[in-house]
Every structure is written in structure tokens, then in C-alpha cells.
């Protein structure tokens, strides 16, 4: 991917939880791909303390709930350390048009009420930050995320990478974007010094490229490489989603398939990577919470995707301990897209992987799990629709909650 030479720094200091949510939604817009975001709490007071020590960024977004006199005092203090070229955006709690005009005359770039939508702020930011071309994501970037913790997205990602890189011998890299809890290293029995954290540090220096990243990767077998997560809860987990995207796109210059194992959460990182991937595999389990979340994720992606994108639903952990489950047909009816794969629960294969660092496709080539993952790899690689041997049992009648979930997700 060609990268623009100019990068804009955007720092935001929020006061309220609503303010945090608002500014966290800004980096997910792919048009702001030329901006590096840093988001902190503390409002203007924290900003004053910060910029007494370091230079101000290109753009500063400050939330305030202070009255007029206190706010003016805080802005006077900020002016002592603020670069004249820094653009300052204010998020205010109360609407006072006369005072807002006064702030604009003082040199504040823009003033927004905290209740305004993120789109209004993004539109204003795009008058300063050149819009990033969002069609430059390579076709080989495949993001895999779980619709709820425990659905098995990481297991699918790790085995799909094996099927593509080892069995199909296609240049494939598996990269773990879960900084705190990533399991690529565990499941492949590798504990390298260089991890995705190293790549992020390089990206923040503006020096990341595909060849460098390929040098960081560990070869597993044949054409499969991996870059693991540091799996460290003490590391900075609030890095700009744009830096993760730069890494993914740089890797797509070196590999046919870039498999991204995303955290099982709905965060600015996950949203940004998902909407900029050419394919997204949403892995769910046959239960109501997973159905609801899968529906919401697919609806969001259809509305916000920045590239020509295909979304797939993978139904995992089917027939687990004969629990009551939602039928595949009901899942498809509610999501309004076909389920690409319905994978039966295979505790023997997956537990062996977790304990021994050996993929089920390597250990048990003929298991139902292996067959389904292999078919999934065939579809990802060739686009051919898979034929599944269904072993599902009709364990539950259609739930009356299904129609409610469909209505909620459709707004």
C-alpha cells in the first residue's frame, strides 16, 4: 500500500464517559487515516499539565464542563504553551452561542456541543486533514473476530492460517492484534522477543514496511509465518488504530493472505481494522447473545465499510455438550446473510492445540473440525462455495426472542 508522507497528530482530552466515547469514534473513520490519535482523560487541566512538558500536536480536542470564567483561565494557561499552528477544538456541555462566537474570535478553531454526532466533528477535521484514500486496502487482508468472548474466533483464525499457508502452500501470515491477551504464540508454541509491539513501535516512527515486518515474522512451516502478541496487560493498549492498519497493509505487499486475529471486543481498533479489511469473518456460537452481536456487527460493517468488502458468518462450537442452541436456519434468517460454515464442537482437537501447540489439521487430519476449516480455507482462497456435511440436531424450537433481536439490530 502506498502511504501518504504527511501524518497529522490529533490529541484529545475528555472529561466525561460520553466524551471518551465520542472521541474514540473518530479514529474509526477511514477518511482520517492520515491522523494519529492520542486520547486521554482529564480535560483542559490535564492538557495544560501535558503541554508544559512537550510540544502541542497539530490538532487538539478538549472537552470542558467548566463555567465561562474558569474556562477562560484554563485557555489562557494553555495559550502559554500552545504552538500558534495548533488547531484547537472545544467540546462544551452547554450551548451558549454568544460565548461560542467569543471563543472563535479568540482563535479557537471550532466549538461543538458534546451531544453533537461524531460526523460533525469529522467533517470539520477533514477541512484540515487531507482525506485518506480508503480504497487502498489490499484484497488479502482478512480479519477474524468473535461476536462474543469464547466463540472461538482465534481458534478459527489460527487453523485457517495453517490450512492456507501449510496445506495450500500460499504465502500467508497470521498476526495477533490482541496486545493484552493474544494466543497466537501459545497455540503455535512460540515465545519470540519481537512481537507486534515491535512492529507498532516501528510504525510510530514512520518506518514500517513489508520487508521489515517479514523479517520480524517467525516461519512455522512451508509458507506460513506468524507475528505474535506480547500478551502483556501492562503495555500501552491505546495505540492509534491507523498504526495497526499500516502494519496489515504493509504485510499485504509481501503475503497473499494476511490473517488478522482481532480481540474479542468492540473497540476503535476492531472497528477500524474490520471496516478496512477486504474480508471479515465474524465467528459466533449458536446462542442468543452471539446472534444479537453478530447481527449488530454485520449491520455496522454494511453501513460503514470503506472498501469493497465481503462479510461472512462462521457458526462455531455447534452441538457443544448437547446444550440448547439456535438452529442454523434461524441464524441465517435473522442475519439476512448465509452462514458460511457451521463447525461442530471438537473439544479433543482444540484442547490438544491449546496444550501442545499443534493445529488440529496437523494432528487429526480427518476430524470434522479439520474438514470444515479446510473447506473454509478453500473458499477464502478460491471463492468456491463449500458443501458441508451437517450433523446438527434440532435441539430447540424457534425462539420468540429472535424477532426482537432482528428488530433491535435494524434500529
Written account of the structure:
By secondary structure, the chain is of the alpha/beta class. It has two domains: 8-125, Response regulator (Rossmann fold), CATH 3.40.50; 135-409, P-loop containing nucleotide triphosphate hydrolases (Rossmann fold, 3-Layer(aba) Sandwich). 40% of the residues lie in helices and 18% in strands. The chain has 17 helices and 13 strands. It has helices at residues 17-24, 43-51, 68-81, 97-106, 118-125, 153-167, 184-187, 196-204, 210-216, 241-251, 268-275, 288-304, 328-335, 347-356, 360-363, 368-382, 401-409; strands at residues 8-14, 35-41, 59-64, 87-92, 110-113, 141-146, 172-176, 218-221, 224-227, 257-261, 279-284, 310-318, 339-344. The protein has an eight-stranded mixed sheet, sandwiched between helices. Strand 8 and strand 9 form a beta hairpin. Helix 6 (153-167) crosses helix 16 (368-382) and helix 12 (288-304) packs parallel to helix 17. The longest helix is centred in the C-terminal third of the chain and has 17 residues, at 288-304. It is elongated, with a radius of gyration of 23 Å. Residues 1-5 and 388-401 have low confidence and may be disordered.
Which fold does the CATH topology of the largest domain refer to?
Rossmann fold
So, CATH architecture of the largest domain? 3-Layer(aba) Sandwich
According to DSSP, the number of beta strands is 13
Approximate strand percentage = 15-25%
Integer average pLDDT = 83
The rounded distance between the terminal residues' Cα atoms is: 36 Å
Query: CATH top level of the largest domain?
Result: Alpha Beta
Radius of gyration: 23 Å
What name goes with the CATH superfamily of the largest domain? P-loop containing nucleotide triphosphate hydrolases
Class per helix and strand makeup: alpha/beta
Biggest β-sheet: strands ordered side by side in the sheet = 8-9-7-10-6-11-12-13
What is the element string, with H for helices and E for strands? EHEHEHEHEHEHEHHHEEHEHEHEHEHHHH
Helical stretch tally: 17
List segments where confidence is low: pLDDT < 50 over at least 5 consecutive residues. Answer: 1-5, 388-401
How can the largest sheet be summarized? 8 strands, mixed
| Percent range of helical residues | 40-55%
